[in-house]
Design goal:
The protein is 63% helix and 10% strand. The protein contains 16 helices and ten strands. The protein is an alpha/beta fold. It is elongated. Strands 1, 2, 3, 5 and 6 form a five-stranded antiparallel sheet that branches. A five-stranded parallel sheet has the order 7-8-9-4-10, with helices on both faces. Strand 5 (370-377) and strand 6 form a beta hairpin. It comes from Lactobacillus kitasatonis. GO terms for molecular function: ATP binding. It holds the Pfam family ABC_membrane.
Amino acid sequence: MLYKYSNHFKFIAMIITGFIASCSTIISAYMVQTLTNIATQKKWDQVGSFLIIVIIGFLITFMASLIFNRLKTAAIQEANIYLRTNIFKGMLNTDRDENSDALGFLTNDFKLLETNRFDAQIEIIMQACTLMLALGYALSVNWLVTILFLVGSFVPMFISNFFQKSIQNASEDWTEANGKYVNQTKNFLAGSETLSLYNGQENAAKKNQVKVFNLETALRKMNLLNLDTGSWISLISNLVTFLVPFLTGIYMVIHDMTTLGSLFAIVQLANSFVNPILTILSDRNELSTTKKIVEKTNKYLALANSEKDSNEKSAFQDLTLTDISLNRKGQQLIQNLDLTIKNKTKQAIIGPSGTGKSTLLQFLMKGKYGEAKEILLNGKIEKAGNFENIFAYASQAPVIFADTLWFNLTLGKDIPQEIVEQVCSKLQLTNVIKEKGFDYSLGDNADQLSGGQLARIELARAILSRCPVLLLDEINASLDKKTSDKIHQYLLNSDLTFVEVTHHYEANELGNYDNVIDLKGYME
């Protein structure tokens, strides 16, 4: 995964420098073997050449490790930037209802990719390099003792297999508990003013404590399984992986089958058999804890890279939906509704509360909460939800982003300033622009604008999108009568195509629309 999302050349250079850095184990074994032989054979004159070789070797491996560190952190940074950017992009292509745990995933779960996956992947590669180098050198010293240590080194692997499934299940439980904790905490914090108003802080904290307990219990279980696995592996490795081969080596030294320096060198290298294998097993456990996170990451990446079917906005002529029925939360709303939206027409949707007026707009945009017997876009059959790019949307609960006024109006699209100013003028936003400026931040300062001003900013955004059809959901809810009339006069006299849900209207105002649909007549 890390190789896929980082610079390939740098990644390969990282492996090469890591391989060179791993040679420090060989130098340590050579040092133990040579010094032991110098001592037993009393050849002090060999110390000078020995020191030169060892010092040069350690300096080379030290420089390689410094380069490796920089390449490793750069590779992780590149992968993180790519993944965070594209995961977020994929989340933006996901329905809000399906994305309730998105923030927790980007903060807590994503961090596990770095700590439990990227680090583990690199560590496995480096430990494999150490194992190969140590094994090659040890075999050249004494193959029989080396084989004994090597066989013993694989025993912990079988112990680790007993714990794999339990660790993975514990990790999934922790991920689920973490998502619930983050969602509830975010919800309570968003409603902190209401909780303070009704003195509900204590009860909210008690509710949250349940989620905290479940989260920490799941984390404790996962950590305990990892620790217990390490304890069992440590016990087996001390007995089988080290004691038995070392006793065999002592026997061979006593019977002049090998030298003491060779045995010590292999014992020194044995740690480079055992430790890499133990580390690889531990890292494998870490990888298993991120399985679900990787699956979710891949899902978001697929959404980020998917291209939606595009319909030419300028080619819109008409949209006809036959026999629409809406159903939300198990409740039947309307049935047998036929709706035709023609270019440059203005339609009003009215009806009592609960009939599905806003739900109808959601069905048009997303294909959710209902179905239609037939849908024709410009005379061609389409499926519900496959043509949402023809719609722009403005509602009584405007979505405002923590960015500049300009971004909120244009969403970063290249729109000439004079066109933006023209639309804002028609929507009575000129004073806001003169007073605040397009660079005014609507993050922490959004509350300094009125609800009506924010609603008009969203309406301006919808108009500036140049989408063929505007879906307007009670846009006059936060507007005074005078401003509402001016805006509706502009909309009705324009060449815009729109469908407007409205609750508050005068009977004579409905005559200004090309068509009025009363959903009351389509209820059961």
